[in-house]
User: Which sequence fits this backbone?
């Protein structure tokens, strides 16, 4: 838990649906990169909308030609983080200038495949910074401005129209994705001690370099190339002017086209991912719909079968109620098979013999039957009873019933 936890939770609550995951990702980043600070500020998009977003602002160490440079950056954490990739910018100080290249546009916006192919399961802010360090180590995103540039000598001939340099960056509020008028905030960072100076870019071809002279030394007048004289006035050849204009317009169009293409590529990637998710959801819905239809068909079939069974039972009940007065005692018990019927019959006869023996004993005690008659009848009854029990045991065994008799 870092000192920014309460600050982040206070500003992210209700705005970031994956707040815990985003905070965990930010904490891991600022734990590794101590110079990054957490801020909460407005971010303006190309469509004119604005949102207050958490951002990480500070410097990251980059190794370039065996020297370590602190590159100022700003990472804007979007509301759907970590589902959406952060928006990254290079934010130069007043003594630096953005170096436009393959991965950085004129406004400092950073473009990498790591961001366009962002996946929440495998990508993180720390990994994004590692990729930025690797890319900036090959192609620095900023260079130091010329500190001592001599004033251009006033000449009598017309000014030569040159290709424009990138404009000086103003300290303004942070804006949205790259536009021709976008200028992100350039914070002032403390000096880095004996850090080597930021690399400078080579002078564009066709320009006169500005020589550096020691302080206090007079600077000689450097004559500019003399244009071809036409009459009494000196003027540039129209072909050179047109070529310069065409080059400037061509470069500007290329920059805009590259920015537009990068933005369109990112949006296309998002649309393709959304399309894939929708197709996958459609397949799941169709599968669930098929299962539900099969279950409904089975339920309808079961209802029809049960309804038929209910009709049969009702018919049997009506038949029994109609014949109730005409039934005999033996008709109330109707075995389903001959074996079961034999078991029931033998059991009934065996119980009847048991009752006969009981009543004979009662008659003997009342002196209604003499002893010889009692013994003769009891012996005969027990013999018949034994036969019925043997029949019951054999029938139960044949029917596969448990022999509990």
Assistant:
């Amino acid at each position: 838990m870092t000192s920014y936890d309460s600050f982040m939770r206070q500003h992210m609550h209700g705005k970031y649906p994956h707040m815990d995951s985003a905070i965990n990702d930010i904490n891991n980043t600022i734990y590794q990169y101590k110079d990054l600070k957490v801020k909460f500020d407005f971010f303006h998009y190309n469509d004119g909308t604005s949102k207050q977003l958490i951002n990480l602002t500070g410097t990251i160490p980059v190794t370039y030609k065996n020297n370590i440079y602190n590159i100022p950056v700003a990472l804007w954490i979007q509301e759907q983080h970590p589902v959406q990739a952060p928006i990254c910018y290079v934010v130069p100080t007043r003594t630096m200038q953005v170096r436009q290249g393959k991965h950085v546009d004129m406004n400092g916006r950073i473009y990498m495949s790591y961001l366009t192919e962002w996946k929440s399961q495998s990508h993180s802010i720390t990994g994004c910074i590692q990729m930025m360090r690797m890319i900036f180590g090959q192609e620095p995103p900023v260079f130091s401005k010329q500190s001592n540039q001599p004033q251009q000598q006033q000449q009598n001939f017309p000014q030569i129209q040159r290709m424009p340099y990138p404009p000086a960056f103003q300290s303004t509020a942070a804006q949205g994705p790259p536009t021709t008028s976008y200028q992100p905030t350039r914070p002032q960072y403390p000096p880095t001690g004996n850090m080597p100076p930021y690399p400078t870019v080579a002078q564009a071809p066709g320009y006169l370099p500005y020589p550096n002279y020691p302080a206090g030394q007079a600077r000689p007048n450097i004559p500019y190339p003399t244009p071809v004289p036409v009459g009494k006035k000196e003027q540039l050849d129209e072909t050179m002017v047109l070529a310069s204009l065409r080059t400037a317009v061509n470069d500007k169009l290329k920059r805009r086209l590259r920015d537009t293409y990068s933005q369109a590529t990112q949006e296309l990637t998002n649309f393709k991912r959304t399309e894939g998710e929708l197709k996958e959801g459609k397949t799941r819905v169709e599968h669930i719909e098929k299962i539900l239809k099969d279950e409904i068909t089975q339920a309808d079939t079961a209802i029809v079968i049960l309804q038929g069974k209910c009709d049969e039972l009702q018919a049997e009940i009506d038949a029994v109620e109609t014949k109730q007065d005409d039934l005999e005692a033996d008709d109330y018990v109707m075995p389903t098979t001959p074996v079961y019927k034999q078991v029931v019959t033998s059991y009934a006869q065996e119980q009847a013999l048991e009752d006969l023996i009981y009543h004979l004993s009662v008659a003997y005690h009342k002196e209604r039957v003499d002893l010889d008659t009692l013994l003769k009848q009891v012996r005969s009854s027990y013999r018949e009873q034994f036969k019925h029990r043997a029949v019951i045991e054999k029938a139960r065994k044949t029917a596969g019933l448990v022999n509990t008799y």
Remarks:
- The chain has a mean pLDDT of 77.
- Residues 57 and 74 are 4 Å apart (CA to CA).
